[in-house]
Structures are given as C-alpha cells and as structure tokens.
Amino acid sequence: LETWAGELRSRMENAIRLLEKGDESSVTQAKQQVNELVVRRLAPLHQGSYPLPYPVEIQIDDHAEAFTRLRVISEDTPAFLYALSNALSLHDVSIEHVRIRTIHGRVEDEIDLVDLRGRKIDSPELLNRVKFSVLLTKQFTYFLGAAPDPFAALSRFEQIVRDVVQKKKEKEWLDLLTQPHLLKDLARLLGASDFLWEDFIRLQYETLLPMLSPYVRTHALAGTPETLAEKRRNALKGARTLEEKGQELNRFKDREIFFIDLDHILHPDSTFESFALALTRLAERIVDEGARMVYEDLARRFGRPRTVAGLEAKYAILGLGKLGGAALGYASDLELLFVYSDSGVTDGAPPLANAEFFDRLVKGVTGLIKSKREGIFHLDLRLRPYGTSGPLASSLDSFCRYYSPAGSAHSYERLALVRLRAIGGDPELGKQIERLRDEMVYFPGRLDLKELKELREKQFMEKTGSKRLNAKFSPGGLVDLEYSVQILQVTYGKEVPSLRTPLVREALEVLSEEGVLSEEESGRLISAYTFLRHLINSMRMLRGSAIDLFLPSQDSSEFAHLARRMGYSRGGPLDPSEQLRIDFETHSAAVRVFVERHFGRDSIPGATAGNAADLVLSDQVPRKTRDFVLRDGGFDQPERAYANLKSMAGGGTRRATFAKLALLAFDILKRRPDPDMALNNWERFVRAQVSADFHFNLLLSQPMRLELLLGIFAGSQFLSDALVRNPGFLDWVVAPEVLHKVRETRDIEEDLRRMASGCSSHGEWLNRLRRLRRRELLRIGIRDICLGVSTREVMLELSRLAEAFTQAALEKRILELPECKDRFCILALGKLGGSELNYSSDIDLLGLWSDENGKNEQEGKALFAHLMEDLRSDLSSHTEEGYAYRVDLRLRPFGRDGELVPSWSSLVHYYCDVASPWEVQAALKMRPVAGNLHLGHSFLEKLRPILLQDRRREDVVRPIEKMRTMGVKTHSGETPDVKIGIGGLRDVEFLVQGLQLIHAGRLPSLLEGNTLNALELLGKENVLPEPVALELKEDYLFLRRVEHCLQVLEDRQIHAIPKDKKELKALARRLLGPDGNEDRFMEKLNGCLQRIREAYVTYLIEGRE
C-alpha cells in the first residue's frame, strides 16, 4: 500500500505540475500520461473479449439557478468518470462539482455543469450534444487498450464525435458508433498512424466507418491478385490524357495502400509477409502500368523505338532491394532499374535515339507516380549502372559490360543484384537479364569482402552516429542480415542454383537444406528477419516517414506505442515495451552471432557491439566485447559470470530460450546489489533442476518469478543455499496466499504438528524441523528482500516462527514425559521476548516449572532439567540439515551456575530478593511463549510490582552505563558496529529500558517489551519529546534493517560494517536501492549513530525532561 501510495502521489504531482504550466504542450503531456495510466488499468480487464457496452441513462436537471445538473446512471465500469470528463471537454463545458454514488456496482453520479463563462447551460441543443458525446466517449474509452497510441486514439475519436455533432448527424451515427466490434477496430486504427489519420481517416471517416461493421469486415478491403487488375482498369476508365491517367493511377495507388494498411492493422493475426506481398504486388502493377502509359504517350509523339531489321526494342523493369525481394513495407522506396534491349532510333518524326527515348520513359514514370508522403512509394533509381552519374535507363550491352568480371561495378553493386527481379516491361527480356545476372554474380571470388566490410563500417558511422539503436543499421540490424545472406548466396550460388533467389526467407531455407546453416540457425534468422522487417514497418507507419529508423527511448511513450503497434499486448507477464526490448535484443544478437560465425567478428561494425544474448548464442565473442557487456551489466567478475552463463545456456533449443531469458535477467540484475553472486547462485539452482528447459520457459512465462528468484540470489547466500538444496520450496513460496500475508503462529504450529505425525524416527523429525525452518525463512526473506515489507513486520514474523518451533519441539518432548504436561512453561527474553528477532538471533529462553503440588523438589528439578536439555538439543544440535536455533539459557537465575530450570516459587524469590539491576532490566522483555502459558503469566504478575518500583535515576543509569562502556570496549573495531558500538542498537534499547525503569512507577503503561512500541509509549506519555521518539524509531528501524542485511547474507551474527569496498557497495545497494552507493550509505549511517548517541546521553545519562 505504501508503495502504491507513493507511486500515485508522484504521478499526481507530475500531472499537476504540467497542468500548472498552462501551455498547450504541457497540458497535452499531462493528458497523455493520465491516458496511459487509464489504458494500463483497462487492458487486463477484457483481454481478447468484446464486451457489450452497458446502457447509460442521462438525465438533465435544470432546476438550480447557478448550474445545470447532469445525472448519469449506468453500470460501474473502470475509467467511467475519466471518459465522462473527456466527453464534456468537447463542448467547452466546465465541471463545477461531482457527487459520486456507487451502489452494488451501479453508478448514480451527479455532475454540475456551467459554460466557460461560468453560467448555467440553457441551450437544449447543446445539452443534447453533451448527452450524445458522453454516451459515445464512455463506450469508446473501454476499448482504448486496443490502440497502439491510446491518447491519439481518444483525441481523434473526440474530433469525429465533434464533427458528427456539428453536422447534426447524431441519430444516423448512434447505432454505428456503439457497436463493440467497430469501436475496437476504430481504436486500433485511430491510434495506429499519424499519416493514416491526417491523410485518410480524418477526411474519409464517413465512408470508412461503415466498412468496419462486422459483416463487411469479413472480407479484405484491399484488392486480391485476381481483382487488382480489374480494379485498376475501372479506376482509369474515363481518363483521356496522360495527366488524367496519372492522377487516377495515383488515387488508385493511395487508396489501395490505405486498404492494405487497414487490413494489416485490423487483422492482428495477419503476417508481415502477407502485408509485404500485397504491397509488392501493388507496386509492380503501378510501376508497370505507369511505364506503359508513358511509353504509349512517347510512342504516339516520337514513334516506337526500333533496332536492327526494324524490330521493336524492348524494355524491362527490374526491382531491386525490398521490391526485388518482395519484401516491401510501409514507406519503402521502390528501387528500380530500367534496361532496354538495343540501340537505335524511333520510327516517328522527329525520331529519337533509343537512349533518349528510354531516358524520357524513366523520367516520365518518376514524374507520373507521386509519393503522397516522403518515402511512400518513392522511386529510387540510384542502383543503376554508374549510379547518379549514369543514364536513367541502361542498354542491355551497358548493363552487361558494367557488371561483367572486368566491369567497374563495386562489390556492393554486384551484391545488390542478388535481389534483382523482373517486375514489368517485356517478360522475356526480364528473364534474360535474370539469367545474365546469374552468370555474372554467382561465381566465387567476384566479391571483395574487404570492400564490403569497409562500406558497412562507413555506413554504421554515418547512419548511427549517436548511441541510439537503429533497426536497420545498428550491429545486428537488418542490413547485417541481408548483406550476409546475400554473400552466402553468391558464395554457394554457382553450385546450388536454388540459392539464386531474390527472396531472403527462401534463401535462408535453401542454405539450411544445403547444410550451410543448421536448421536451428536458419530458423533463428528467419524469425529475426521477419521481426526486423515488421519493426521497421511499424516505426514507419507510426511516424509516417521512411527516414528515421532509430528506436525510441525504451522508457518513452513512443516506444510503448511502437510495441503495441507491433501487436504486443498488455496484461501478460511482461508489458509490451519489455517484450519488444527483449525481442529486439535477442534477434539482433542472433544476427551478430550469424555474421560472426560465417565472416568473423571483425565483420560486425562497432568495437563492443553485443548484449547478453550474444554471450549465450555465440562461442566466439571476443574477450573485450564479453567483458564490456558483463561489466556494463554490473558484474565485477566477468570470467566467472561468463562461465555461469555458458553453463546455463547448454545447447540446442535450450540455448535459444535462455538467450531471451538472459536479457530479462540482465535487466533485473543491473538493479540488484550483487549481480555476480546472483548469477552464480542461479547457475547452481539450474543445475539442481530436473529440466532446465522447463525452468527457463516457466520463468519467461512468469517474469515475476525470475525477479523474486534473482532477488534472493543477490540478497542472501544463506537463503540461496536453502533454495538450491530444496528447489521445490520455490513453488510453495511464490503462491500468492503464502507470499502476501503474515503467517500466524498457530498456522506454523499446525504445519509442524502435521509434519511430526508423519515422522518414523526422532532423527527424521529433527531434519524435517530444520527443513521447514529454511522454507519459512525463505518465505520471510522473499517478502523482506523482494516485496519490501516493513522491517517491523519481518521482526514479527521471525519471532512468530521461533515461538512456533519452540512450542512444537516442547510438545514433541512432552509426549515422552506426560507428567510434565501443564507444569512447564518457557519464557522468552531478549529479542524473542520483545517480538523483534532478526535472521540470525539466538533465542534467549528461561524454563519454569510448577512446584505448587508439593511433590519431591529434587525429582522435579531433575525431570524438568532433562526436559529443557532435550529441548535445547532438539533446536540447537547439528544434523544433516543443520540446526534450527541457537538456544541461550544463560539468562536464568545465577547464570551458568544456576539451576537449568528454576521452579515457580524459586524464580519469584530470586527476582524479589536477589536479581541484579541488569536482570531486572532484562525482565522487561520477558513473556511466555510455549507450554503452560497461564503458568508463565502468573509469574509475570508477581514480577510486575518489581518492575513498577520507584527507582532513582542514578540507580538505573549507573549499571546501564557500566554495561554500555564495557560493551563498547569489548566490541570496538575498525568499522562501526550497529549493535554494540556507540550510537548502535544497544543505545536505543538501553535508553528505552532505562526510561521505563525510571518512570514505570508513575506510568505503569510504559511496561512494554517491544522497543518500537515502547518508544511510541514514551513519546505519548511525554517522557521523550514526541519528535525525538519518532526520530529514534526511524533510526532504530534503519539499524535493524542494516543488521538484517548483514545477517541474512550468510546466516551469521554480524553487526560490523564490512571493510571490503565491494561488500560495502553491495550493502549500500541492498539498503538504499539500485542507486545507492557507499558514501551515501555511510553518511546516513553516521547521522543515525550520532542522533541515537545524542538522545541516549541527553535523555538517559543527563536526564533532560
């Protein structure tokens, strides 16, 4: 609750701060942030479902003079008031007051409205518009989770509603705009792309929305290969001039692109391959038809180009790049090469040389086909022979000379021909050019790999100058994959004709079939290729631009929108942004590993490019890169960390699964105090698993399990050892009903009784006892380390655990000694007595037996001493499973020299007549915890008057100060000791206990064994100034937290701050979080110790009131 409240406060403050700025940008940003939070809340509620909109009744009450009251009655749904306020804002209406009533899930809200001038709204027309807007916006808000950019979707929907209202078309649109399927699709569309909104939806929504109705939506909106030609012919009917034909062709093109985009957006299950193929088919038709139009126009004006014997010269249009590879995406350039068959002249008047004719043809095509926005179907002719210096159309002879072995084509130009594919013009000439290409390109040694490497390095430097990731040009991006596949095609294509394909996916499959790639590697690369193409397409669609392929910052709203645009959904184990991040890093690593394996690491641009997935997937990562990745991940011992990673990775499909998991783990480990320890413990845990594959897949499906696991592995070696030794504990611990509540003592006792009943021997009982304690400590440790429950709660749980174990062990022994039943009680002192135990505390116990029946006292002493000795042995002795608790019996009367278990009457006599001041002080924490609790309480009633005696301050202070002085001398060291040292826990405890003994005579309520409760009482009774008591509480809790972190690490009684810098750094991060450091921690610690010491001296030694 505290964490949630803190997050809410921070978000509210941020939003209010933006609103207070008042400028349009800040207000929009505030709205966007709130909208994201609303969507995050809505997303998990109807995953995959299409809920019917709840009916809404809206009543107008205009009886008040100063305002108009809107009464809204409906079923309560999430974000109801948020949607309502958005709807009202459409009409410049101000909300003056809101009364919220929710009765059994039904909302009856009253909203008082005024116009922007603060006056009552009288216009019936405006009120009807308000009612209409409220209804529609409320329904639409419920589907915002489907939108890649929810804020944009809501804003655009509001614009549509405003337009409908202004045109007074509410009635005809009401049924359509309340259909759940339509609203879900509309949310997806409106939040998908600025370009689609600005250029199509905003202008044509009246035509578009009816097309989204469920009946119409069963059919594709874009043309199929069979219908595309007919649709094109119909679009061009009536066009006479070349200009008119060009205009109609462009309208047809833009409309079909829009429909292809819509089909892709509205069918989340459709593949990127089908989208790319549809765009490619359309591009081929448009370019071929545009060229035919221009050719016929030129032929009409200049005649047809002729060659030898008057034969007509042919031309072919060849696609390169994405067009050649049938992999066009949104805003992909159309890379084209025009080749004509022969030199000659046209047969018209005036005649034109064929070179001039085809040059004009290319110019005409580039002028005819218009890009609606930059990069969208933009014709790119730069890959022609001689580049921008060469003619726009190349003769077949010039083509052959340029790309021949003796030609001047660069290696990257030859490589580009791998993607060459005839897409228009004369089919026979196109096939001829493809055959010639095969002869010129698919021959070993034709490529200069050094030149290609230098080009790639230059490209990397120019295109990715910043450290931002680029989907195309960063190491492991699309360019590395495409170039490398094409090089392998050229290398093996002479012997394997099926490799002479422009399609990357097909080439990868053939490379696998021929044994160049393993089936596993080929599968990884096909997945990477599909992902990267889909990613680039989604970025271009969101931005409406082909140029910017840098990934947004991973904590930005744009990155979240991109993830959702790609189809990553909310409500799963990882949020969409995290899913996208992991997939990008995994796929780019797979590409880098592929390049490294076949061409060497130096073929990858960027000196230290790589991430955790590279280390998992590759066996050849250079040490420099390896160390850089690991040190960047927070590892101080990269050699051991790398060995752990490789051990966990294994081989085959397990390695691929672990690559993804490693990325997720590295992100978590960066924020953990000791990544080296965590990774080492995880590797040990994986070795203890029956199936590492199952473990990895489980963690991927439940990332919170991984977070908890690594939290323990980084926070406590002791608890890590327990988990490695008992892997099955994890499933029990992470069950919500176990992890998210404080266990009662009786529940633990019941577990112990059930366990005891199933033991066949005493040795088995002892081992089970110890295993159960480890399990419970693991549960408490996860709640402490991973969930951040309060230190107070941790101390309580640790104390309850010790109580339950003491009771269970006693019950087991009393079964063998029935005569002891009801005559024996165990009292706790020290930290257990105060219910403030820590992880490695001894438990201070005092046995007490009843001597009221007058039985033989010597016999009783021997009997109960035997019982107490057996009990201590059961808890403290070492078995194969270790020990349960270290039991300390030295606080009994006369210490080691006294009877092991005093009788009730002798204990009363001792405290009345013999006990020293420090023993009386220790008795403040005494309480019964096991056995006959009534017997223990009857003793405490006798003890109470002793504790309430009037005492002079100096009689209390003198022995306390003597003990503190001795303790400080005994435990002085090079670093602060948070328990015994000056200003440590003992100062707080002795201050509290001293003040209790001084003032309890007049304030009996001060008798309280728990230090924190006692501090609250001392403040409440003004024995300590309340601010001082509060400050001491906070400082005491901080020192207890330090103590816990020191002890839970290795289950040792450590109270001194570590000298080792690495250990100190880890301790600082455990206490202060990922950003904590040694200096900040020591500053906080020293301030705490100083304040405690000052309070100890001021209020106990000096006695200031």
CATH topology of the largest domain: Beta Polymerase, domain 2
Number of strands: 14
Name of the CATH class of the largest domain: Alpha Beta
Write down the overall mean pLDDT.
Answer: 88
What's the alpha carbon Rg, rounded to whole Å?
40 Å
Structural class: alpha+beta
Q: What name goes with the CATH superfamily of the largest domain?
A: Beta Polymerase, domain 2
Tell me the fraction of residues in β-strands, as a range. Answer: 5-15%
Measured between the Cα atoms of the first and last residue, the distance is 37 Å
Short recap of the structure:
By secondary structure, the chain is of the alpha+beta class. It is 59% helix and 7% strand. The radius of gyration is 40 Å and the shape is elongated.
Blueprint (SSEs and pairs):
Layout (H helix, E strand, L loop, with lengths): L1 H20 L2 H19 L13 E6 L6 E8 L4 H10 L3 E7 L2 E2 L2 E10 L8 H18 L8 H17 L3 H5 L5 H11 L3 H15 L16 H12 L5 H25 L5 H31 L12 E6 H4 L9 E7 L13 H15 L10 E2 L12 E3 H8 L7 H6 L4 E5 L1 H15 L7 H15 L14 H15 L11 H10 L5 H25 L13 H9 L10 H24 L12 H6 L5 H10 L5 H12 L2 H18 L5 H13 L4 H10 L1 H13 L1 H9 L3 H5 L2 H4 L5 H13 L4 H24 L5 H24 L9 E6 H4 L9 E7 L7 H20 L10 E2 L15 H10 L3 H7 L3 E5 L1 H15 L5 H18 L14 H15 L11 H10 L5 H25 L10 H12 L5 H24 L4
Parallel strand pairs: 7-8, 7-9, 12-13
Antiparallel strand pairs: 1-2, 2-5, 3-5, 4-5, 6-7, 6-10, 11-12, 11-14
Helix pairs in contact: 1-2, 3-4, 4-5, 5-7, 9-10, 10-11, 11-13, 18-19, 18-22, 19-20, 20-22, 21-22, 22-26, 24-25, 25-27, 26-28, 26-29, 27-29, 27-30, 28-29, 29-34, 33-35, 34-35, 35-37, 38-40, 41-42, 42-43, 42-46, 43-44, 44-46, 45-46
